[in-house]
Every structure is written in C-alpha cells, then in structure tokens.
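Bug report (template v2)

What were you trying to do?
Predict the complex of my protein with flavin mononucleotide.

What happened?
Run completed; filing so the output is reviewed.

Input:
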Amino acid sequence: MNNSPNLERIRSVFERSGVALSLADPEEADCPLILANAKFEALTGYRLSECEGRNCRFLQPGDGSNDMARAEIRAAIQSRGRRR
Ligand SMILES: Cc1cc2nc3c(=O)[nH]c(=O)nc-3n(C[C@H](O)[C@H](O)[C@H](O)COP(=O)(O)O)c2cc1C
C-alpha cells in the first residue's frame, strides 16, 4: 500500500475531508498507520510524523481500562478476516 499509485489520490481526498481520517496498511505487520489528515492531527494532538508506522492502539489509554473494548475490536477484526 505504501507504494500504491493511489496513495496520493487518497491523500488528496483526506486533505479535503471535513472529518478526521487515518489509513492503516493491513499488508504490513501489525497494521501500521501510513496516512492521516489535518483533522486527525487536530483531533488527536499527534502529527502524522508521530503516528506513521504505529498501530492505532497507541491512541488508547495504557492503564488496561479498555481491555474489554479492545478484545471486542480484536475479535471483530479476526472474524472479518475469516470471511474473506
Ligand atoms: C482500520 C482500523 C482502524 C483502527 N482505528 C483505531 C483507532 O482509531 N483507535 C484505536 O484505539 N484503535 C483503533 N483500531 C484498533 C487497534 O488497531 C487494534 O486492532 C485494537 O487495539 C485491538 O488489538 P490489540 O489488542 O492488539 O491492541 C483500529 C483497527 C483497524 C483495523
């Protein structure tokens, strides 16, 4: 995905969007972020350069308070993978 000729087109759409958007690459290990728009940076307080290469989970609190929600997300993602 990082080398996709479509990435620049996606970046252009992202920058014109009025909502926060980020894009992760499922073909890379642990699904790292490869793109985020200005709204995403404003919402999260992180610059794209700080997000790139990291899994979205870095946005979560690190105190374990979200373990159940995280397990639900993980199960949903795994189940989606099985249907492909
Ligand atoms: C396309 C996609 C977008 C995601 N966006 C977020 C997000 O914005 N915030 C977040 O906390 N987790 C997000 N996640 C979930 C985490 O990447 C991860 O799947 C989740 O924390 C469960 O896995 P873990 O237990 O290995 O952390 C996203 C996952 C995917 C596949």
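What did the reviewer find?
The beta strands are 22-24, 33-36. The mean pLDDT is 89.
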